[in-house]
Amino acid sequence: MDEPRAALGLSRLPRLVADIENRRAQVRAYRAGLADLDGVTVPWDDDAAERSSHFVFAALFADRDARDAVRATLTEAGLQTTWYPAITMFSEYASVGSRPRAEDISTRHLALPLASSYTLDDVALVVRTVRDALA
Fold this sequence. Notes:
53% of the residues lie in helices and 8% in strands. The protein has helices spanning 3-12, 16-34, 46-51, 64-76, 100-108, 120-134, and strands at residues 40-41, 57-61, 109-112. A three-stranded antiparallel β-sheet has the order 1-2-3.
């Protein structure tokens, strides 16, 4: 690690615990807000959610079309999302062969906005937008 990155890391250490707790609170809000929504699976049980530092909140949708529709609606609302391809989708790993479960999940999941600077109001906006997209 070079000196500028080390200095940045040291400057963030005093607020690390608060940042992690804020992200955990956001995950609790996402889980509660999306739990009863048909066609959406929220990850982790309560215990696992409380142990993680959560760099993303990934929701799993019924199919790729639903995921893409939600993503488009969030994008239109100015909310950034991403998804992560299965490793077998990269040419370097083509020789590994198909991993159907990983490939299926990669086409149905969506990483919803999550950051230490987000508030519960921000999460509520994302949840409302996801609900609207699937209505």
